[in-house]
Design goal:
Elements (H helix, E strand, L loop, with lengths): L4 H39 L4 H28 L2 H19 L5 H16 L4 H10 L2 H32 L2 H22 L12 H17 L2 H30 L7 H22 L6 H24 L3 H30 L5 H30 L1 H19 L14
């Protein structure tokens, strides 16, 4: 890529647009989820098993639709795939705030799962290809991870305050409406100048893209190991996200805990931003990234077991910080960077969709197992089971040290 002043300015503007959008989406998504996590327990009065089942149903929807959505993004447009995501996501967010009956919640969350399939991979593929600077993209993705955390902190504060003045359902509906409006930012500010849509015979082109993406994944051992790790970690983390509010209620959180949840969420985000800052300059070093991922998994395992046995809410909150502030942001960001480094431009969104499919498969399989464990043995044992998934991942990720990387790519 040329290093002329115009090209440098264009690259800077593109990164700024991407980071602002990432930040704003995190504000709305995380602020909405803060209110929703309390809404599902207090207003909808879902049980622990029902909470995990909601995530499993959401994951099934996403698993089925993820690959077709990724292929369409590689075939037609990454930008307009993001626009579709905003329309569906905003609608699902508003609808969840209007219902409390269990099966209605399941339906709105399945729509929410569908919405993410149009965004997962398309966002990273868009910024990677439009920036066209491979040596810079890892740094941009880490900055994006930090933008998500700071945006999430702003969302927790803003929607925590909003929900204290309004009822929770109304706050959720307003967040959904704002998510719809954010889609207009993508329409007018996301340029798509380097992406070339597939030829007129798009179904044939889509099939070719799917085959090339599948071949790249099948022949790259590093990607396959990251997929396996993602399957386990995301299954554990999704169950944790749905179960830890109930656990904190059980060990001492008050019945109207929104302020406490807001403070806890902000603390976790600050810890996560610090953790990402510490690893930012080392993400191109495979060994350092591997160590970071392993440390994050150990933190997740310890935190989940500590939450399961915590006698009161202070120690339980500290355990939540370890999981949500260290384990989750590090594993998510490092996994995305690894897969992005191993992808090629023509199938990048499709390969990231395979990664997202591993996430959703983890939600379904591991989430169903955790739900059964929660129903049969109780919530603490379910959290210990989630910790065991992180522990197994620690052993699995050590195999990356013997995996090939660039040489694995198909010719």
């Amino acid at each position: 890529m040329s290093n002329s002043p115009n090209s440098v300015t264009r690259a800077q503007d593109l990164v700024v647009v991407f980071l602002r959008w990432t930040w704003a989406r995190a504000v709305l998504h995380n602020g909405w989820w803060l209110v929703t996590s309390v809404y599902l327990v207090v207003d909808a009065q879902l049980t622990a098993a029902q909470l995990v089942f909601v995530g499993t149903a959401q994951g099934i929807t996403a698993l089925v639709c993820e690959i077709p959505a990724g292929v369409l993004a590689d075939t037609l447009s990454r930008k307009w795939s993001l626009v579709v995501s905003h329309v569906l996501m905003g609608t699902a967010m508003m609808a969840t705030g209007l219902v409390t009956e269990f099966w209605a919640v399941v339906g709105t969350q399945m729509l929410w799962g569908l919405s993410w399939t149009f965004a997962s991979g398309a966002d990273v593929a868009w910024v990677t290809d439009e920036l066209a600077r491979p040596e810079k993209i890892s740094g941009v993705l880490v900055r994006s991870g930090r933008a998500q955390l700071t945006g999430a902190a702003a969302g927790l504060i803003g929607f925590g305050v909003l929900a204290s003045f309004l009822d929770r359902g109304t706050a959720m509906v307003l967040a959904g409406a704002a998510m719809l409006l954010l889609g207009l930012y993508v329409v007018f500010r996301f340029r798509e100048e380097r992406f070339v849509p597939a030829p007129v015979r798009r179904w044939s082109a889509s099939w070719s893209i799917l085959k090339r993406g599948s071949a790249l994944v099948r022949h790259n051992r590093a990607i396959l190991l990251v997929f396996a790790a993602t399957f386990l970690v995301n299954g554990a983390s999704d169950a944790f996200a749905r179960l830890h509010p109930q656990r904190l209620f059980d060990i001492g959180f008050p019945p109207e805990p929104l302020i406490l949840f807001t403070a806890l969420g902000i603390a976790a985000l600050l810890v996560g931003a610090l953790a990402l800052r510490m690893v930012e300059t080392r993400m191109n070093d495979v060994r350092a990234a591997q160590r970071g991922y392993a440390v994050a998994c150990v933190a997740g395992a310890v935190g989940l077991v500590a939450l399961a046995v915590a006698p009161e809410d202070v120690s339980g909150s500290a355990a939540v910080l370890l999981v949500a502030g260290v384990a989750l942001p590090l594993t998510r960001t490092i996994g995305t960077i690894w897969v992005n480094q191993q992808s090629t431009d023509d199938v990048r969104a499709t390969v990231h969709s395979f990664l997202a499919q591993a996430e959703y498969a983890g939600e379904i399989v591991c989430g169903a197992a955790v739900a059964l464990l929660a129903g049969a043995a109780g919530l603490p044992y379910a959290l210990v089971g989630c910790g065991a998934l992180f522990a197994v991942t620690t052993l699995l990720i050590r195999q990356l040290g013997t995996s090939r990387t660039d040489s694995d790519r198909p010719a």
